[in-house]
Amino acid sequence: MEKLNVNTRKATYKLENGILICELKPDLIIDLKTAVLLVNERIKITGKYNFPFLLIVKDYLLLDSDAFKYLGTNEGVQNLQASAVVIDSPLQKLITNFNLIFYKNRVPFRVFTKRSEAKLWLFQFIKETEKELFKDLLSS
After folding, report:
1. What is the C-alpha to C-alpha distance for residues 7 and 79, in angstroms, rounded to an integer?
2. pLDDT tens for residues 62-121?
3. For the chain, does the N or the C end have fewer beta carbons within 10 angstroms?
């Protein structure tokens, strides 16, 4: 996939070192309709490729419980190898982690307060993909 930088009404998407990064616009309220829109944008952008996904939440964000459930469905995680969310607020991080207790994750998922930590965690999935792609060469 070529260099990517897509700006929509709700988010900005870019591909950086094999990680698809989505930075949400400030003060966004994510209800079910918005969650579906964001997932459809991401699927359209990624096409047939799977990526580790980094979601950046800059300012306070309201996330509806139906939207939270939807984001964990098969459709919600389509084209994702793993998903990390960076939330500025330690309180929001705590609330998100608490909500995760009640939902089964279909792909590896973690919440961070620092981008660098989230990217480091996601790089392990890029490494696993590369190892799988080159396993035949490595075994000879």
Report:
1. 19
2. 777 788 788 888 899 999 999 998 887 665 656 565 555 555 667 888 888 899 999 999
3. C
Query: Are 111 and 89 in contact, with CB atoms under 8 Å apart?
Result: no
pLDDT of residue 18: 87
Closest by CA position to 79, among listed 43, 37, 121, 132? 43
Length of the chain: 140
Provide the Cα torsion 61, 62, 67, 71; round to 10°: 20
* CATH number where 73 lies: 3.30.750.24
The total number of structural domains that make up the chain: 1
Rg (alpha carbons) of the chain, rounded to whole number: 15
CB atoms within 10 A of CB 26: 10
pTM value is 0.81
Bin 113: left if φ > 0, else alpha if -120 < ψ < 50, else beta.
Answer: alpha
Range of the domain at 87: 5-139
Give the number of other Cβ atoms within 10 Å of residue 45's Cβ. 19
- Single-letter residue type at 10: K
